Amino acid sequence: MTLRLRLAAIVCGLLAAAGVLSAGRQAPTAHITSPADGAYVMGPVRLAITFEPFSILSSVREVRWFADGRQVCTADVSPFACDWDAGDRVTEHAIRAVAVLESGERLVATSRTSAVEYSESVDVDVVQVTAVVTESDGRFVSGLTASDFKVYDDDKLQRITNFASENIPLELVTAIDVSSSMQDALPAVKRHATKFLSELQPADQVTVLGFNDTIFTPARRSTDQSVRARAIDRLAPWGGTALYDVIIRALDDLGRQSGRRALVVFSDGDDQSSHASMNAVLQRAESSDATIYMIGQGRALRATALQQLMKKLAAGSGGRAFFSDSETKLEGIFQEIIEDLRHQYLLGYAPPENARSGDWHRIRVEVPGRGYNVRARSGYRLARRNPQ
Q1: Stretch 169-184: mean pLDDT, rounded?
Q2: Which of 333, 318, 321 is closest to 373 using CA atoms?
Q3: Rounded distance, CA 168 to CA 156, Å?
Q4: Quick check: is 10 in a domain?
Q5: pLDDT tens across 226-267, in order?
Q6: Are 218 and 244 part of one and the same domain?
Q7: Same-domain status, 97 and 234
Q8: How far apart are CA 352 and CA 205, in angstroms?
Q9: Does residue 12 sit within a domain?
Q10: What is the domain range of residue 101?
Q11: For the residues 365-380, what does the mean pLDDT come to?
Q12: H-state helical runs in 257-375
């Protein structure tokens, strides 16, 4: 082979190698991390973005942020975040970020937040009551039938039309406080919450919410435990506490499907960031048949008003409120909730004719002649029917 041919072969080889390396190099991409797809946002929101590979960050000149087709800001300093007001209602928004590189190339990322609609009263054809029955020493009572129960609506005995005690579908929302004050407690909470969810029945539907200044959904409604575990593992602490907002959002998420509904909320501090009021939370809970379990830790032990709210929400729904500053007790608390969920009875009856006045109706559930204790929701409020 002549020298000229050898040089040509070497050049071709170098060019081929360069092509392979170029093909293997990761194309730069941008991703919106806040608000994430499906997040529920209202009020001030931090718009945030990440880049892959991370080294591309040094080549970013600016990021232009758009909300619902309108440019809301331009960030020209790393990390290229921006503050935006999402308004006073949780509605759907289309978010777009356009990152302009020094080369003039543009990287585009999008996300879409979700809307949430809720009312302070509900419209149902059956009043549904979840009840837990225990002995005087606290042991759970199983094996009861519909004829063992008496249900009273404003002190009037009702005919039980629906009853179940085994294999009852469960819709559960777990809301975990990830505000900055949870820095020390969050690792233990994540570990025990993951174990708690792993002990549910395989068919139980679970949604995981995280909340601080905003509310987000790291794991949507699913029966897949691995999805929940990965979602909880990714939680990190920052921001304030929007406790009232997340309770309202979670109760709306639970909806009106048939079966049992439950909400487990873990928080270590009083509300700092909610748009909803305490009265709005109480009214929303009155219109839901979800059983509410509240777990207060850390600063919550010193916040009297917060403890009173947690106890009122839990007791009114037939659930329980727990307060502990001990990590060792946290696993026991989650285990008690699991046992509660495993020993629930589901009863239903047709609402009285005057139930749709929008007024509060008291519920009393008894198992006469046994000396048992019965824990159930204390009442309900039904929406007025719209005239046809």
Answers
A1: 91
A2: 318
A3: 27
A4: no
A5: 999 999 999 999 988 999 999 999 998 887 556 799 999 999
A6: yes
A7: no
A8: 31
A9: no
A10: 29-112
A11: 95
A12: 278-286, 304-317, 327-342
